[in-house]
Amino acid sequence: MGGTLTKVDIGHGRGWLAPAPAASLRRIDAQLGRLADINEAGRSPEQANKNRAKWLAYERYLNGGPWAPKAPYALGADESVHCWGYAADTDDSYDARASAVWLDNGWVQTALYPNNLAKHEPWHREYREDLDNHKNEAGGGTSAPNVPKEITVKHYSRQDATAKASSRTLAPGAGFYLHTKTGVAVSQATNVVGGVGPYSVTPHVYAEGNPGDVLEVVLCWQDEKTKPKPAQSRHYVERLVIDKDGHVRASREFKRAVAAGFAVYLHLSAPKTNTGPVKVTRLDCDAYLFTAA
Ligand SMILES: [Zn+2]
Q1: What angle do CA 182, 198, 288 make, to 5 degrees?
Q2: Mapped to the 3 state alphabet, what secondary structure does 264-280 carry?
Q3: Which CATH superfamily hosts domain 151-292?
Q4: CA-to-CA distance for 267 and 233, rounded, in angstroms?
Q5: Does the N-terminal peptide bond of residue 228 adopt cis geometry, omega within 30 degrees of 0?
């Protein structure tokens, strides 16, 4: 497939799509009355080729070859529609009403193989402009944010530098705050928001540990005006459970306003009941502030 690939951010940490599918997704968000669920949209060629290699190994195993871990059916970079920004994997396919909205907007389930469950992927959908019943409707433009015109969106992106550089190991009962510098105490925190107003805040966590162990994700609204002891309100975002392969990879959205004088800190901790250490390889945070222009 030739031509220049234009990536349009589809917002809320959901990744990117090509311009026409991205415009369609904004209409789907509006029609659903909530954000469309996206597990993965656009995909890099490197990731596509990795996924392809895993599938081929698993397929060889199914055909009597050496054991390989279970992997979903995947095409390589040259064939994967994800790499062109025209495919999205969505759990909305399991919701009859939401699935009908996607279909009405031209998103076809192209990987339905009910007689071959190894290849059956009801969540995988591809955008077909010729089948989009809403392609001429407003909300389409190629780069407009997914909100009414009089609203602007500001994006604050933060990354825990230590987790990225060397990973962090959390013993049972231990925790830390996201901090954009390495070498600071676990009690030190970076503010993950900027201005005042309504926010969508999405922490992203990658970690490894014993299956069944847990990580607790908490956002702390802290009143910076109350000295010497700041008042904190803690908002429990998620209790993440490490899967049977020893991994957890999760993004969870949390919506709340930030008032003047407040900072928001992202805290990650391992409960005392964990059976072993948890290695955290990534803690990022995307915060979107919605303000009237
Ligand atoms: Zn897919």
Answers
A1: 45
A2: EEEEEECCCCCCCCEEE
A3: icosahedral virus (2.60.120.660)
A4: 12
A5: yes
What are the Cα distances from residue 186, in Å, to 65, 174, 250, 258, 279?
48, 9, 22, 24, 15
pLDDT of residue 292: 59
- Between residues 45 and 104, which one has the greater pLDDT? 104
For the stretch 119-144, pLDDT in tens is: 788 899 999 999 999 988 865 444 44
Q: How far is the CA of 72 from the centre of ligand 1 (A)?
A: 9
Reply yes or no on whether the pLDDT at 217 is more than 80. yes
Going from the Cα of 91 to the center of ligand 1, the distance in angstroms, rounded, reads 11
| pLDDT for position 140 | 46
Question: Ligand 1 centroid vs 48 CA: distance in angstroms?
Answer: 10
Task: Answer whether 9's CB lies under 8 Å from 16's CB.
Answer: yes
Could you tell me the distance, in angstroms and rounded to a whole number, from the CA of residue 89 to the centre of ligand 1?
Answer: 5
> What separation in Å is there between the alpha carbon of 83 and the centre of ligand 1?
10
CB 54 within 8 A of CB 74: yes
The reported pLDDT for the residue numbered 230 is 64
Measured in angstroms, how far is the CA atom of residue 166 from the centroid of ligand 1? 31
CATH 2.60.120.660-classified regions of the chain:
151-292
